[in-house]
Write a structure and sequence with these properties.
Shape: globular
Number of strands: 34
Strand content: 35-45%
Largest sheet: 5 strands, antiparallel
Structural class: mainly beta
Oligomer: single chain
Helix content: under 10%
Low-confidence stretches: 1-21
Distance between the termini: 39 Å
Amino acid sequence: MCESKVSRILAVAVLIGGACASAQTLTTLYSFGSNTRDGVDPQAGVVFDASGNLYGTTAVGGIGGANGILFQLSPPAEPGGSWSENTLRKFQGKPDGKIPESRVVVTSTGQIFGTTWGGGAKDMGTVFTAFPPAVAGGSWTEKPIYSFGVFQSDGVNPNAGVLAANGILYGVTFGGGANGKGTVFQLTRRSDHDNTWTETILYSFTASGDAAFPSSELVMDKKGNLFGTTTLGGVNNLGAVYEVSPPTSSGNPWTETVIFSFNGTNGTLPAGRLLLDASGVLYGTTDGGGTGGEGTVFKLTPPANSGAAWTEDVLYSFSGGRDGSNPAAGVVMDKNGKLYGTAQHGGTGDPKVGGVVFELDPPSVAGGAWTETVLHSFSGADGFLPICTLTLRKDGIYGTTAQGGLFGTGTVFVLTR
Protein backbone atom coordinates (compact mmCIF):
# COMPACT_ATOMS: atom_id res chain seq x y z
CA MET A 1 0.00 0.00 0.00
CA CYS A 2 1.11 3.55 -0.72
CA GLU A 3 1.38 5.74 2.35
CA SER A 4 -0.83 8.85 2.30
CA LYS A 5 1.63 10.82 4.41
CA VAL A 6 5.32 10.16 4.21
CA SER A 7 8.56 11.88 5.02
CA ARG A 8 10.84 10.38 2.42
CA ILE A 9 12.88 13.51 1.90
CA LEU A 10 16.36 13.89 0.53
CA ALA A 11 17.58 16.81 2.62
CA VAL A 12 20.87 17.22 0.85
CA ALA A 13 22.06 20.74 0.17
CA VAL A 14 24.31 21.26 -2.82
CA LEU A 15 26.49 24.36 -3.08
CA ILE A 16 26.53 25.78 -6.57
CA GLY A 17 29.73 26.23 -8.49
CA GLY A 18 30.42 27.64 -11.91
CA ALA A 19 29.47 31.10 -13.13
CA CYS A 20 27.52 32.43 -10.18
CA ALA A 21 27.17 35.96 -8.93
CA SER A 22 26.90 34.68 -5.35
CA ALA A 23 26.62 31.32 -3.59
CA GLN A 24 23.37 29.45 -4.13
CA THR A 25 22.14 26.39 -2.25
CA LEU A 26 19.83 23.80 -3.80
CA THR A 27 17.84 21.67 -1.38
CA THR A 28 15.81 18.71 -2.59
CA LEU A 29 12.49 18.88 -0.77
CA TYR A 30 11.22 15.57 -2.14
CA SER A 31 12.43 12.72 -4.36
CA PHE A 32 9.75 10.75 -6.17
CA GLY A 33 9.74 7.00 -6.68
CA SER A 34 10.39 5.51 -3.25
CA ASN A 35 7.64 2.93 -3.90
CA THR A 36 5.87 1.51 -6.92
CA ARG A 37 2.73 3.61 -6.43
CA ASP A 38 4.42 6.98 -6.00
CA GLY A 39 4.42 9.58 -8.75
CA VAL A 40 7.06 9.70 -11.47
CA ASP A 41 8.13 12.49 -13.85
CA PRO A 42 7.00 15.82 -12.32
CA GLN A 43 7.26 18.15 -15.30
CA ALA A 44 5.38 21.35 -14.60
CA GLY A 45 6.64 22.78 -11.32
CA VAL A 46 4.72 23.51 -8.12
CA VAL A 47 2.40 26.21 -6.80
CA PHE A 48 1.62 27.36 -3.25
CA ASP A 49 -1.63 27.70 -1.36
CA ALA A 50 -2.27 30.33 1.32
CA SER A 51 -0.99 27.98 4.04
CA GLY A 52 2.38 27.37 2.40
CA ASN A 53 1.64 23.91 1.01
CA LEU A 54 2.95 23.01 -2.44
CA TYR A 55 0.85 21.32 -5.14
CA GLY A 56 1.75 19.68 -8.42
CA THR A 57 1.37 16.65 -10.64
CA THR A 58 3.50 13.85 -11.99
CA ALA A 59 2.90 12.79 -15.56
CA VAL A 60 3.09 9.08 -14.76
CA GLY A 61 3.22 6.85 -11.69
CA GLY A 62 0.47 6.03 -9.26
CA ILE A 63 -1.93 3.17 -10.03
CA GLY A 64 -0.36 0.78 -12.51
CA GLY A 65 2.53 3.22 -12.87
CA ALA A 66 1.01 4.88 -15.92
CA ASN A 67 -1.65 7.48 -15.15
CA GLY A 68 0.04 10.03 -12.87
CA ILE A 69 -0.82 11.65 -9.56
CA LEU A 70 -1.86 14.93 -7.96
CA PHE A 71 0.30 15.63 -4.91
CA GLN A 72 0.64 17.98 -1.96
CA LEU A 73 3.87 18.75 -0.11
CA SER A 74 3.46 20.19 3.38
CA PRO A 75 6.25 22.20 5.03
CA PRO A 76 7.92 20.92 8.20
CA ALA A 77 6.53 21.92 11.59
CA GLU A 78 10.01 22.95 12.71
CA PRO A 79 12.72 24.68 10.64
CA GLY A 80 15.07 22.15 9.11
CA GLY A 81 12.54 19.33 9.27
CA SER A 82 11.25 17.24 6.38
CA TRP A 83 8.49 18.14 3.98
CA SER A 84 5.68 15.55 3.86
CA GLU A 85 4.03 14.24 0.70
CA ASN A 86 0.33 13.52 0.48
CA THR A 87 -0.93 11.86 -2.70
CA LEU A 88 -4.26 13.58 -3.26
CA ARG A 89 -5.25 11.57 -6.32
CA LYS A 90 -3.97 8.62 -8.31
CA PHE A 91 -5.54 9.13 -11.72
CA GLN A 92 -7.64 6.25 -13.00
CA GLY A 93 -7.33 6.72 -16.77
CA LYS A 94 -10.61 6.66 -18.65
CA PRO A 95 -12.80 7.77 -15.72
CA ASP A 96 -10.95 10.94 -14.76
CA GLY A 97 -7.83 11.33 -16.92
CA LYS A 98 -4.23 10.29 -17.26
CA ILE A 99 -0.86 11.97 -17.86
CA PRO A 100 -1.33 15.24 -15.92
CA GLU A 101 1.75 16.95 -17.32
CA SER A 102 0.81 20.61 -16.75
CA ARG A 103 0.82 23.08 -13.88
CA VAL A 104 -2.23 23.25 -11.62
CA VAL A 105 -4.15 26.30 -10.40
CA VAL A 106 -5.00 26.70 -6.70
CA THR A 107 -7.84 29.12 -5.96
CA SER A 108 -8.27 31.27 -2.84
CA THR A 109 -10.65 28.63 -1.43
CA GLY A 110 -8.10 25.85 -1.92
CA GLN A 111 -9.85 24.31 -4.92
CA ILE A 112 -7.48 22.94 -7.57
CA PHE A 113 -7.94 22.92 -11.35
CA GLY A 114 -5.74 21.12 -13.86
CA THR A 115 -5.61 19.16 -17.09
CA THR A 116 -4.68 15.68 -18.22
CA TRP A 117 -3.28 14.91 -21.67
CA GLY A 118 -5.26 11.66 -22.01
CA GLY A 119 -8.00 9.73 -20.33
CA GLY A 120 -11.55 10.85 -19.76
CA ALA A 121 -14.67 9.64 -21.55
CA LYS A 122 -13.00 9.55 -24.99
CA ASP A 123 -9.40 9.04 -23.80
CA MET A 124 -8.50 12.45 -25.27
CA GLY A 125 -7.88 14.41 -22.10
CA THR A 126 -9.73 16.20 -19.35
CA VAL A 127 -9.99 19.27 -17.19
CA PHE A 128 -10.30 18.19 -13.56
CA THR A 129 -10.92 19.77 -10.19
CA ALA A 130 -10.03 18.70 -6.65
CA PHE A 131 -11.58 19.90 -3.39
CA PRO A 132 -9.95 19.90 0.05
CA PRO A 133 -11.71 17.85 2.75
CA ALA A 134 -14.48 19.50 4.76
CA VAL A 135 -12.97 18.09 7.95
CA ALA A 136 -9.26 18.14 8.77
CA GLY A 137 -7.72 14.76 8.03
CA GLY A 138 -10.40 13.77 5.55
CA SER A 139 -9.90 12.80 1.93
CA TRP A 140 -9.73 15.14 -1.02
CA THR A 141 -12.41 14.86 -3.71
CA GLU A 142 -11.36 14.85 -7.38
CA LYS A 143 -13.54 14.75 -10.48
CA PRO A 144 -13.29 15.57 -14.18
CA ILE A 145 -15.33 18.61 -15.17
CA TYR A 146 -14.83 18.18 -18.91
CA SER A 147 -13.73 15.34 -21.20
CA PHE A 148 -12.38 16.35 -24.62
CA GLY A 149 -13.23 14.78 -27.94
CA VAL A 150 -16.95 14.47 -27.24
CA PHE A 151 -17.90 15.91 -30.65
CA GLN A 152 -16.15 15.87 -34.02
CA SER A 153 -14.58 19.34 -33.96
CA ASP A 154 -13.78 19.38 -30.26
CA GLY A 155 -10.22 19.91 -29.08
CA VAL A 156 -8.12 16.96 -27.92
CA ASN A 157 -5.05 16.49 -25.71
CA PRO A 158 -4.76 19.60 -23.50
CA ASN A 159 -1.01 20.01 -23.02
CA ALA A 160 -1.04 23.12 -20.81
CA GLY A 161 -2.75 24.18 -17.62
CA VAL A 162 -5.81 26.39 -17.38
CA LEU A 163 -6.12 30.10 -16.64
CA ALA A 164 -8.78 30.94 -14.04
CA ALA A 165 -10.21 34.45 -14.49
CA ASN A 166 -13.52 35.91 -13.33
CA GLY A 167 -14.97 32.48 -12.58
CA ILE A 168 -14.14 31.18 -16.07
CA LEU A 169 -11.46 28.69 -17.07
CA TYR A 170 -9.46 29.28 -20.28
CA GLY A 171 -7.12 26.78 -21.89
CA VAL A 172 -5.75 25.17 -25.03
CA THR A 173 -5.66 21.77 -26.65
CA PHE A 174 -2.68 20.67 -28.68
CA GLY A 175 -4.82 18.94 -31.31
CA GLY A 176 -8.34 18.70 -32.55
CA GLY A 177 -10.63 21.55 -33.40
CA ALA A 178 -12.21 22.26 -36.76
CA ASN A 179 -8.86 21.89 -38.57
CA GLY A 180 -6.92 19.44 -36.40
CA LYS A 181 -4.40 22.15 -35.37
CA GLY A 182 -5.59 22.72 -31.82
CA THR A 183 -7.99 25.04 -30.03
CA VAL A 184 -8.44 27.80 -27.49
CA PHE A 185 -11.38 26.92 -25.23
CA GLN A 186 -13.43 28.34 -22.38
CA LEU A 187 -15.20 26.47 -19.60
CA THR A 188 -18.08 28.21 -17.83
CA ARG A 189 -19.80 26.91 -14.72
CA ARG A 190 -23.44 26.10 -15.42
CA SER A 191 -24.66 26.89 -11.91
CA ASP A 192 -23.31 28.30 -8.68
CA HIS A 193 -24.86 25.34 -6.89
CA ASP A 194 -23.07 22.50 -8.68
CA ASN A 195 -19.78 21.77 -10.38
CA THR A 196 -20.85 21.15 -13.96
CA TRP A 197 -19.26 23.16 -16.73
CA THR A 198 -19.95 24.03 -20.37
CA GLU A 199 -17.21 24.24 -23.01
CA THR A 200 -17.04 26.90 -25.72
CA ILE A 201 -14.36 26.75 -28.40
CA LEU A 202 -13.15 30.32 -28.79
CA TYR A 203 -10.85 29.56 -31.71
CA SER A 204 -9.73 26.64 -33.88
CA PHE A 205 -6.30 27.12 -35.43
CA THR A 206 -6.22 26.80 -39.22
CA ALA A 207 -3.67 25.87 -41.83
CA SER A 208 -1.05 27.87 -43.77
CA GLY A 209 0.16 31.07 -42.11
CA ASP A 210 -1.84 30.72 -38.92
CA ALA A 211 -0.44 29.57 -35.61
CA ALA A 212 -0.72 25.81 -35.06
CA PHE A 213 -0.48 23.35 -32.16
CA PRO A 214 -0.60 25.42 -28.93
CA SER A 215 2.34 24.93 -26.58
CA SER A 216 1.70 27.13 -23.53
CA GLU A 217 -0.74 28.23 -20.89
CA LEU A 218 -2.69 31.36 -21.68
CA VAL A 219 -2.16 34.78 -20.10
CA MET A 220 -4.72 37.59 -20.10
CA ASP A 221 -4.29 41.36 -20.26
CA LYS A 222 -6.53 43.99 -18.65
CA LYS A 223 -8.78 44.10 -21.72
CA GLY A 224 -9.46 40.36 -21.64
CA ASN A 225 -7.20 39.50 -24.58
CA LEU A 226 -5.53 36.08 -24.34
CA PHE A 227 -1.94 35.38 -25.42
CA GLY A 228 -0.12 32.12 -26.04
CA THR A 229 2.45 30.31 -28.16
CA THR A 230 2.26 27.52 -30.71
CA THR A 231 4.94 24.96 -31.50
CA LEU A 232 4.51 25.36 -35.26
CA GLY A 233 2.67 27.69 -37.60
CA GLY A 234 3.31 31.32 -38.37
CA VAL A 235 4.60 32.50 -41.73
CA ASN A 236 7.69 30.27 -41.48
CA ASN A 237 5.99 27.30 -39.78
CA LEU A 238 8.59 27.55 -37.00
CA GLY A 239 6.23 28.65 -34.26
CA ALA A 240 4.27 31.75 -33.37
CA VAL A 241 2.88 33.99 -30.64
CA TYR A 242 -0.82 34.69 -31.00
CA GLU A 243 -3.54 36.86 -29.48
CA VAL A 244 -7.20 35.89 -29.15
CA SER A 245 -9.48 38.88 -28.51
CA PRO A 246 -13.05 38.88 -27.18
CA PRO A 247 -15.82 40.25 -29.43
CA THR A 248 -16.77 43.89 -29.20
CA SER A 249 -20.46 42.92 -29.48
CA SER A 250 -22.11 40.08 -27.59
CA GLY A 251 -22.64 36.98 -29.68
CA ASN A 252 -19.88 37.68 -32.19
CA PRO A 253 -16.87 35.33 -32.47
CA TRP A 254 -13.50 35.86 -30.80
CA THR A 255 -10.74 37.07 -33.13
CA GLU A 256 -7.28 35.52 -33.45
CA THR A 257 -4.16 37.34 -34.64
CA VAL A 258 -0.64 36.01 -35.10
CA ILE A 259 1.41 38.79 -33.50
CA PHE A 260 4.83 37.25 -34.17
CA SER A 261 6.27 34.47 -36.33
CA PHE A 262 9.68 32.95 -35.53
CA ASN A 263 12.25 32.46 -38.28
CA GLY A 264 14.91 30.29 -36.66
CA THR A 265 17.54 32.98 -36.09
CA ASN A 266 15.30 34.58 -33.48
CA GLY A 267 14.08 31.25 -32.15
CA THR A 268 11.98 28.27 -33.09
CA LEU A 269 9.57 25.95 -31.27
CA PRO A 270 8.32 28.48 -28.68
CA ALA A 271 7.12 26.74 -25.53
CA GLY A 272 6.21 27.61 -21.98
CA ARG A 273 3.93 30.16 -20.41
CA LEU A 274 4.37 33.76 -21.53
CA LEU A 275 5.09 36.45 -18.95
CA LEU A 276 2.98 39.60 -19.37
CA ASP A 277 4.25 42.67 -17.53
CA ALA A 278 2.28 45.75 -16.47
CA SER A 279 3.17 47.63 -19.67
CA GLY A 280 1.89 44.86 -21.95
CA VAL A 281 5.33 43.48 -22.86
CA LEU A 282 5.55 39.69 -23.32
CA TYR A 283 8.54 37.54 -22.36
CA GLY A 284 9.02 33.91 -23.29
CA THR A 285 11.31 31.08 -24.34
CA THR A 286 11.94 29.03 -27.45
CA ASP A 287 13.12 25.44 -27.27
CA GLY A 288 15.35 25.88 -30.33
CA GLY A 289 16.84 28.44 -32.65
CA GLY A 290 18.79 31.57 -31.82
CA THR A 291 22.40 32.26 -32.73
CA GLY A 292 23.54 29.10 -30.94
CA GLY A 293 20.68 26.94 -32.18
CA GLU A 294 19.92 25.89 -28.59
CA GLY A 295 17.00 28.12 -27.72
CA THR A 296 16.33 31.70 -26.65
CA VAL A 297 14.69 34.03 -24.17
CA PHE A 298 12.75 36.69 -26.07
CA LYS A 299 10.81 39.89 -25.47
CA LEU A 300 7.85 41.16 -27.51
CA THR A 301 6.92 44.83 -27.23
CA PRO A 302 3.44 45.92 -28.36
CA PRO A 303 3.14 48.59 -31.04
CA ALA A 304 2.38 52.19 -30.19
CA ASN A 305 -0.39 52.20 -32.79
CA SER A 306 -3.07 49.51 -32.95
CA GLY A 307 -2.56 47.14 -35.86
CA ALA A 308 1.15 47.80 -36.27
CA ALA A 309 3.77 45.07 -35.79
CA TRP A 310 5.06 43.90 -32.44
CA THR A 311 8.82 44.24 -31.90
CA GLU A 312 10.87 41.22 -30.87
CA ASP A 313 14.20 41.32 -29.07
CA VAL A 314 16.22 38.20 -28.36
CA LEU A 315 17.45 38.77 -24.82
CA TYR A 316 19.65 35.68 -24.75
CA SER A 317 20.64 32.84 -27.09
CA PHE A 318 21.80 29.64 -25.41
CA SER A 319 24.96 27.92 -26.60
CA GLY A 320 24.28 24.43 -25.28
CA GLY A 321 27.35 24.47 -23.04
CA ARG A 322 27.71 25.63 -19.45
CA ASP A 323 24.94 28.18 -19.95
CA GLY A 324 22.30 25.52 -20.70
CA SER A 325 20.13 24.67 -23.69
CA ASN A 326 16.51 24.18 -24.74
CA PRO A 327 14.49 26.37 -22.36
CA ALA A 328 10.88 25.27 -22.75
CA ALA A 329 8.99 26.57 -19.73
CA GLY A 330 8.96 30.36 -19.96
CA VAL A 331 10.39 32.81 -17.45
CA VAL A 332 9.31 34.57 -14.26
CA MET A 333 10.34 38.06 -13.11
CA ASP A 334 11.25 39.48 -9.71
CA LYS A 335 10.57 43.03 -8.48
CA ASN A 336 13.94 44.18 -9.84
CA GLY A 337 13.15 43.09 -13.40
CA LYS A 338 15.40 40.02 -13.35
CA LEU A 339 14.18 36.95 -15.23
CA TYR A 340 14.49 33.37 -14.01
CA GLY A 341 13.94 30.11 -15.85
CA THR A 342 15.04 26.55 -16.50
CA ALA A 343 16.87 25.00 -19.45
CA GLN A 344 16.44 21.28 -20.01
CA HIS A 345 20.04 20.43 -20.88
CA GLY A 346 23.58 21.78 -20.62
CA GLY A 347 25.38 23.13 -17.58
CA THR A 348 28.58 22.01 -15.91
CA GLY A 349 27.41 18.51 -14.99
CA ASP A 350 27.25 15.29 -16.99
CA PRO A 351 25.68 16.25 -20.36
CA LYS A 352 23.47 13.16 -20.19
CA VAL A 353 21.87 14.31 -16.95
CA GLY A 354 22.15 18.09 -17.13
CA GLY A 355 19.97 21.13 -17.12
CA VAL A 356 20.21 24.47 -15.33
CA VAL A 357 18.33 27.14 -13.43
CA PHE A 358 19.33 30.50 -14.89
CA GLU A 359 18.99 34.20 -14.14
CA LEU A 360 18.93 36.99 -16.73
CA ASP A 361 19.84 40.48 -15.51
CA PRO A 362 18.65 43.50 -17.51
CA PRO A 363 21.29 45.84 -18.94
CA SER A 364 22.56 48.69 -16.78
CA VAL A 365 22.34 51.08 -19.75
CA ALA A 366 19.69 51.40 -22.44
CA GLY A 367 20.45 49.17 -25.40
CA GLY A 368 22.95 47.05 -23.51
CA ALA A 369 23.01 43.27 -23.37
CA TRP A 370 21.20 41.12 -20.82
CA THR A 371 23.53 38.99 -18.70
CA GLU A 372 22.95 35.31 -17.98
CA THR A 373 24.06 33.68 -14.74
CA VAL A 374 23.69 29.94 -14.11
CA LEU A 375 22.32 29.62 -10.59
CA HIS A 376 22.50 25.83 -10.55
CA SER A 377 23.70 23.03 -12.83
CA PHE A 378 21.99 19.69 -12.17
CA SER A 379 24.14 16.58 -11.93
CA GLY A 380 21.65 13.73 -11.55
CA ALA A 381 21.73 13.04 -7.82
CA ASP A 382 20.04 16.41 -7.28
CA GLY A 383 17.76 15.91 -10.31
CA PHE A 384 17.99 16.57 -14.02
CA LEU A 385 15.81 17.57 -16.95
CA PRO A 386 14.23 20.70 -15.42
CA ILE A 387 11.35 21.61 -17.73
CA CYS A 388 9.22 23.49 -15.23
CA THR A 389 7.98 27.01 -14.78
CA LEU A 390 9.62 28.31 -11.62
CA THR A 391 7.80 29.77 -8.61
CA LEU A 392 9.43 32.77 -6.89
CA ARG A 393 9.05 33.37 -3.16
CA LYS A 394 10.93 35.54 -0.69
CA ASP A 395 12.56 32.44 0.74
CA GLY A 396 13.69 30.95 -2.57
CA ILE A 397 13.01 29.67 -6.08
CA TYR A 398 10.89 26.51 -6.26
CA GLY A 399 10.66 24.00 -9.09
CA THR A 400 10.78 20.38 -10.22
CA THR A 401 13.06 18.13 -12.22
CA ALA A 402 11.42 15.48 -14.35
CA GLN A 403 14.18 12.94 -13.72
CA GLY A 404 16.98 12.23 -11.25
CA GLY A 405 17.05 12.53 -7.50
CA LEU A 406 17.37 9.78 -4.92
CA PHE A 407 15.32 7.28 -6.94
CA GLY A 408 15.96 8.62 -10.43
CA THR A 409 12.35 9.64 -11.14
CA GLY A 410 12.18 13.35 -10.36
CA THR A 411 12.35 15.90 -7.56
CA VAL A 412 10.90 19.03 -6.01
CA PHE A 413 13.61 21.56 -5.12
CA VAL A 414 14.17 25.00 -3.66
CA LEU A 415 17.09 27.25 -4.54
CA THR A 416 18.17 29.79 -1.93
CA ARG A 417 20.96 32.30 -1.41
